Amino acid sequence: MDFQDRAYRPDINGLRAIAVLAVLAFHFKLPGFDGGFAGVDVFFVISGYLMTQIILAGLEAGQFSVWQFFGARARRIWPALLAMCSFVLAMGFFRLSPPDYATNARHVLSSLAFLSNFDYLMRASYFAALGSENWLLHTWSLSIEFQFYLIYPIVLVALYRWRGRPGTLVQWVATMFAVSYLLSALPTRIQPFPAFYVLPTRAWEMLGGALVCIAPQQLARWTPRKGLLLPVGAALILLAVTVFSPAIKWPGRLAMVPVLGAMLVLLANNQRSWLARSRVLQFFGTVSYSIYLWHWPLIALVNQLPLPPGLQMGLGIALSIVMGWLSYISVEVPGRRWLKSPRLVPGLLFLGPAAVAAALSAILVTMGHGLPAREAMREYTRLQHEVRYVHINEGWCFVDDRTIDIPYRAEFSHCDIGDLQGSTTALLWGDSHAGHFTPLINELAKAAHVKLRVLGTPECWPTLQGNNLGINPQVCAHFREDVVRMARDFDVVILAARWDSDSRPHWQDDVRYTLDVLAATGKKIVVLRQVPLFAEDIARQYIYDGLFGYPQRAHYPRVLASDPQNAQVRDMVSATPNAQFVDLTSALCSPDGSDCQVLQNGTMLYSDDQHLSVPGAILLGQRVNQAGQNFLP
Fold first, then answer.
1. 416 and 427 in contact (C-beta within 8 Å)?
2. Could you give the CA distance from residue 266 to residue 508 in angstroms, rounded to a whole number?
């Protein structure tokens, strides 16, 4: 192949358009596009193809420079990224709470350094983090792509110069493709989100594009008639975008579907197709990078507005397109031009101070804990107190101080609340869902004159076997030993957990074994169903509505995905002697789950998307007592 033939390919521009429109549809929750996140995988394939073509064209001409390559990539990516990050810092001053502002300032630094994927890797899965509080979540893909740009040209240059006989380069790239794919598929089955965020498990997608560039003839021999390449490739991408969903472990094996689709489209090289001739697709392809940059912060801003979901979606999409176009004509194109020699010096004289100013501002905000003294945040402390979660320093006996690996202390195993003079005793054991039930059960314990001991710490499943020891494993392991030793000393043992949080194949065995051991003591067992979950952090939305004077939303639909696991726990409890399964869902939601009243009597019942707030738990406890449904003896 003549790599120096780098004529503009409108079909690639059309493929970019498909990718960015898929991502927009997914992030704006357009019905029917639950797999739109696969648009990023298509972007990776395109990037790998173009970068390989640029590098090999330079090598064949004897003019390739790694430094010039890095500079060209920086000119392409950095100016618009810097503009968007500066916007986030400026707008966040007025629209973000102190914790969210500090977090996003830290993300500005990691995004500008192309390290944000590692920042998110340490915190949460991509799909769990799809909340409006994280304005720069989408930059993970830019970081992975730039890391690829730093490593790939060096590897490719070495292989090109050492390639020996014809075909060796193809074999090496194909081998790297296969190894990276296996690294992606295997870890994703065990622990999906680390594989989502790192280059070794994503490189194969870019190497797929590289293979199309290096070996089009070899690949064409394995494919059907050339006329079928484009429709089959487009169908595979459409399949991924419309049929797949976040429930799939991603990237994993199924990521091959959109990647193969993009490879086939590139291999078709059809410049007379709808993909290449559509003016609409050509427009979106041209401004795809800027649209991708701007759409996510705009989602965050629009989600703060008290608008119906349909209007939020329409406004967000329209703003993303307009801002993407403005960014393209006013930042992206001028940035490339002014950072080219001989304009490099004046370009750097502008871009350098702007970058330093953005970085220093981000450092100031991060070190200043989000600047809580801002006028716009004067109500934040009060609102945050209204949705607070239980804390170890507030007397709730739940071991959590917002850190990890808390060393065990003996007093953790002897913390009592309720009626401390009560002759009847109860033991509450579990993870953060046991923690948020603590104020509720405290109300029941005081009314029933029960002394309540709490053994709880985050992610510590209330089972006597298994490796679910949570973020404070030393504490959790001691609590297991305490339960074995103490269970016979209590009249009631209460288990509470987020039952859908364990994805291991045989988690039911751990629960069943624990129920059998406790049942052998002859004591009463109470198992609490986890409370309804929501698709967004409703407490954060409550705070923002209060800060900006918007009507505070009282009703939300719940997420139903946790129902099967909770039903399995209920069935196991039903088969256990002297055991009771308690479900408080009816106190919050309609029978079909379509409407849950989370704001009752002026009290926000939740502290995030899944945990009760302290005031909310107390209110529910009082209502359970009033309804005569106290499950304590």
1. no
2. 47
